Every structure is written in C-alpha cells, then in structure tokens.
User: Fold these one by one.
Assistant:
Number 1:
Amino acid sequence: MPINPRAAELRQLLNEHNHRYHVLDAPIITDGEFNALFQELKAIEVADPSQLTPDSPTQKVGGYVAVGGLKPVTHAVRMLSLDNAFEDADFHKFEKVIAVELGETELEYAEEPKYDGLATSLIYIDGILNLGATRGDGDTGEDVTHTVRTVRNIPLKLRGNYPAFLEVRGEVFMPRDGFEALNKRQIEQGLKTYSNPRNAAAGSLRQLDSAVAASRPLEFCAYSLVKADGLRPETHIEAMELLKSWGIPVTPGLAVIKGFEGAKRPGKTCWSAALR
C-alpha cells in the first residue's frame, strides 16, 4: 500500500510539536490545534492500518498489554549505579584515582542534577525507538518498551543526523507536582498511594498495561551516551550535546566545574558529577 502523503506530513508535524512542547518547552500551536492534527492522523491510520508506523505519535497513548510479564533483557554493556561522596575525603579519594589514571592534576567535571527515578536504557535503530529496558541487576533488566513509548518527552524517532545505532541511558522520573496529583487521584479512586515519586515512576514504568503508564506524568532525562555508531565524543558535555541535537532531553542544569572547590559549592549536595 503506498504511503499516504498526508499521514507522513501529520507524523512529521506532530513529532515536531511534541518536541517543542515536551523538550524545548516552546509550543507554537494550541492544545486544541494539536489534538485536531492528532485525531486526523488517527482517523487515517484506523481507516488504513498499513499507514501506521512505529514512530507515529498515536503510538504514545498506550493500550498494548504485555502478555506473560516483563521479559528479561541482557545489557550489552553493564548498567552501573552511581557512587556517593558524603564527606570531603570521599571526593578527594575519587579525584586522586582519576588524576592518576588520566595523568592530570587539574580536573574538570560535568555537573548536573540527579533525578531520582528508574534507570532506563533506550536503544534506537535507524533512528526509531527499538527497545526500552530497566537497569535490573546491571547485567539483566526488564523489557519495558511498551511503557517507555508512552513517556511524553521520549522521541519515537530521532531528529537530525542520527547514527544507525544508538544506546542512551537516563532516568525515567515523576515530577513532584505530578506525583502529588497522581496520589490525589489514587485516593479519590480508593486505590493505594505511592510513598515517593521514585516508587511512583518505577511502578508506572513496570506496568503490564501501557495505558496505565500513559496516564501517568512520567518524564525522561538522559545522563549517558553508551554507544553511537561512527561517533566517539571526547567529553560528557559533547555527548550530551549530541543527544540534545537528536531530540533526546538532557538535564537543564548541565555545567562544567573545576575540581573539588567547584563541586563543593553550596546547594549542590544532590548533584552528580562526571569527567567532562
């Protein structure tokens, strides 16, 4: 069946407006105008299912129920957890090891907010979201592609000059205002409430019914570029800029700091740092 040019145009428009709204926070059309475009595309796909593509914005609304539970996913590169430095001595010990490894005495770091949610790996093949998986024990996680696809700011299709294969890792989290609204709704419906936003995010992403996840205020923020065919950025900042150029959200507070004194500035106790 030939491609419907209007369906292709609508997919491009809706993906662009989704990016402007959820990633750039700079919408240029109203919610009503967006919904009209969305419903037009949905009507075309319902009338002719051959027009439905994996990157269609209509696939973000959920509805698919995973059968038999969440399937295991073996990570090609182990997903590590972050280490903590609660005392000055902890950071100095870390810095000494890195300085010896790099042969440098003055180090710069990339500093960014640490979101508390569920560590998640996203794999894109030819620019299309192919897999979403939880960290699990680091070696083996769970396939949550069906719910990852419903997270509003995760692109189903990359933008720009993207690589043939990309693995990016980050955090699926729930903003506090969304968490409070969710718990209020749970109480009104006589359902169990969540103890904190992290549990709410994890419970939402691990739902078997993706329609449930689609109804939750989940967001994603990238913190690591694991592999991008043909590319090897030299710094973390460069890697994050590449992800941003492909339409993947990164932390808004990303900055370069110098050594221990830069890391210890007041008000930064909940931030993470990586070699720049």
Number 2:
Amino acid sequence: MNKVELDPDGGPMAKFGVFLRTSREARGWTQDDLAHVIGYSATHVSAVETGRRPPTQRLARELDRAFGWDRVFARRALDIKTSALLEGFPQYVARESKAVELRLFDIGIVPGLLQTMDYAQAVAAGAVRRGSITTAQGDERVAYLARRQAGLRRDPPPLIHAVLDESCIRRPVGGPTVMAAQLDQLIEFAGMPNTVLQVAPYAIGEDRSFDLPVNILTLPDRSLMSYAESSQQGHLEQDSGAVLPVLTAYYQLQALALSQAESVALISRLREELP
C-alpha cells in the first residue's frame, strides 16, 4: 500500500497527524497495532494521521494512555479546537496546492491568495481588536496565508479565475498606503498570463450568485471540490456532482461581472484616488 505523504504545514489537523504517525512508528507499531490498543479501527487511525478526520478529546486521551504520556495528545487536540482555521479549510488548502484551476469569489475583502502581507496583517489585526481571535491566532492566519501563496508559485502555474465583489476594492483596509499597494497588486495579478480578474459590480444587485465567499478547485484528474465559509463555519464539498451547481452559478456570475479590462480600469481609477 502506498504511504500517504503528510505535510506538517497543512494546518493543525495535519500537524497532529504527522505527530501521531511519527510517534507510532517510533514505537514500531502499525496502524492496526495502535488501533487494537486504543479501541478504534485502523481506518479511523489512518484518517486522523492523514488529516481527514479531527481527533476528539476521547481519542486523544486513549492515545495518551497507550503511549504512557501525560496529556501530550490531549493538548494537541485542544490546539486544533482553538485554532483560527475553520473546519474543512486545512483539507481544502491541501488540495489547493495541487489544483490545475482555481475559481475564487469574495465579498468585502480581497481573496487571501491575492492579498499583500500588509493587507493580510491589517485584516487579522482587525479581528484581534474585535476579540474574535487572539493575537497568536492572527499571526497563525497570516503565516498560513503566506504558505498558501507560496504553494501556488509552481511550474506550470494553475489557472486562477478571481471574481471580486465591488466591496472588495472599495472597502478601505489598513489605511491608504496599504490599500494602494493592494490595488497595485490586483492590477499586476490581472496582467499575468494564467489569471482572469473580474469585478462583480453593485449594479448586478440580486442577480449576484453568491452571498458568501466561495472557492472552487479543478484537480489534475478533472474532479471538482468547493469550499465556502461564513464567519464561524466552513463547508468543504468533495463530491464533484454536488459541486457542479456551484460551478454553474460561478459561470453565471462571471457573465454578469465586468470584463477584465473594465475591472482593471475601475481598480485603476480607485488607485488614483489614493496616495
């Protein structure tokens, strides 16, 4: 059986999985051996090790008992529960770095993959001031975003479609200097050979397809997956059949959005108003 490679930077669940596998192998145990000791199936152990299933506190306690440790796994499981990353997002990011095509839509803020680091830090700082995340969680979000952006700088690069609600480019974030640099980066992004950038204007009103941020991936085998989130919950969909209606809605949105040339012209006008 092929051994699944694990990425400790793939998020808190991936980090837990790497630690579990490393600890298990250091004892010379197979997944079946460990599963027998803790009273779970080998399939369950495998799913936790590969980041496909979150570790519960009960599982963590059984792991600590099996290894003879004092709350080592329990603390790591708690770290996942208190992470700033929403459910499903680390699994989405693990596929994002392998996708051949990405479709992004965001409302209110520029999509993470298109953000400058100053813009990303300003967004995180705002969440910290509101008390919705801690300073450490804000730092985690920014560092995680930097790794996501680095993962897309590969050869050949993926094709990236980005539709931004008009609010993304009009809402000031981080002050004039940060916003000016962000608009400059969007214009630069639009000029790349593997990208399409469009703005969905306010004028389309109720015909806008989405009311929440949505990302859609096309993977190398042409299968589809999507990720959508609210402020408190993420939803990962890996069934291509279930993603198709989302893809259709995205196409409808693109048809109503400004062309890339019109979008860049609008962003450029807004940029001229800033220092």
Number 3:
Amino acid sequence: MNARKLAMITFRLLLLGFFVLVALDAFLDLGHPHWWNFLPLVAAFALVGVLNRWGGAPDNPQVGRDPVEVAPPVTGRWLALNSPADRTPSHGTHAYGQTFAIDLVAEPEPGARPEFSLLWPPARRPSAYPAFGAPLLAAADGTVVSASDTQRDHLSRTSLPALAYLMLFEASARETLGVRRLLGNHVVLDLGDGVYALYAHLSRGSLAVRPGERVRAGQLLARCGNSGNSTEPHVHFQLMDGPDPDTARGIPFHWPGLGVPRNGEAFEAPSAQSAPA
C-alpha cells in the first residue's frame, strides 16, 4: 500500500471517528469535554490540506506535460463547468486525480436546463434535466478497467436547502464511505501509455460495457445520470495516471477542434461518427 492510499484511508477513519464520538456522546456520558469529539475532525481537515496539495506541481510530473488528445465524451451541445481552462486544480483539490477534471451539463438550447432555485422547488427529478440519459462515449480506444452502475440516481441538489444538505451532511458521509460513493456509477478506461479516463455520475443500470472489454473511440459506454456526489445530472470527466482515483494524479487533456472549454462556455461536440478514432 503506497503513502497516498494510506493517507486517504486515514482521512476516512478520522471522519468516521468524529461521527462515532458525536453519536456516542449524544446517548452516553463519555466523561470528557464535548469539544474533544471534534479532534478527529480537526485532524481530518488538516490532512485534507495536505491531500489538496498532493498531486500538484512539483509532486505531479503530469502537470508540465503536453495535454493528451482525446475525443469529447459526449455529442451535441453541452456546457462546461469547473473547467481546468480557468484554473487548476479545477475542482479545488488535487485529490482523486481530478486536477484537470471537467464537468459537463447538456444544454441543447439556452435555457433548456432548470435554473437554480432559492427555496422552491427544493429538488427536481433527474429526468427534468436534458443531460439525464444522454449517451457517454469512449474518448479513445482502450480497455475497461472498472465499471459500476448499481447506485441510484438521486434528486437534484439545485436549491439553497438541498445544496446546504449536500455540503453539510451528504458530501461528508460520501467521503467517509469512500471514493465509489463520491463517483457514483462510473467507468474507468485504460487508454494505454499510463493514461486512464474516468467517467463519473452515470445513470443506474445504463452500462453498455464490462471490465476487461476492449472499446473503440466513440463507442457507447453508459448514459449520463445523477449518482454519487452530484448536484444535477452531468458527467464528470478526467484523465489520470492510474486506475485508482485514491492514488492517481491528474493528466491534462485536449479535445480536437475544441481545446478545453472554459467555465460557462457552450460547445458543440461532434457526433460519434465524426469523432477521431
């Protein structure tokens, strides 16, 4: 077990320790000041500070490399969010190999996505979003390393109450349970030469491939969903230097003819037939 994996396991154990202490203190007299319950949480956040930097330069030799050219994982008109074209790490952390990750939401035309609401409705069904059920395609020829689609597609977190619930409770619980609960349903492809592609938040029961299968660029892998640590149906796409997000480091990518769209930028991805092989 390498140091990065050990650090992630320690982080989750510290989070679990905090929740256990709080639960025990609510029902039993543990005989110590209440603030002691928060010591594991403080230690966990201190470790997060280290993990958030781990994977950036100079720790990550992938940071200075040329971007890997792959095809977009979607077709049609989409919107880029949390783009590495605007900042790295794109999601505020190098952890889970997501230094150069990007989020994509479908927007067939302006205004097609439901807007963020302050209070009402507090949540929407995944089917209310045009991304839900959209095909996700292999970005290059490769081999399926891992694939999972048993987690449910939950309601959106696109209101202030739902977002507060996600940030204060759900996200921490998913962190404690491990990377699979953060990714939700997902696929990892081995593209060769030490490059792996990750697709996260897939729809339940939508997998069209299985581990060990060889795929071609543009081949259907699964469909977009709202599983895992997701606010609305979208696909989280990233390249990394290993198959395990706990230990992998991010790799920059480039889409032919598109580059890397910036935050809020709409782009038209080519059809699977015209995607580069």
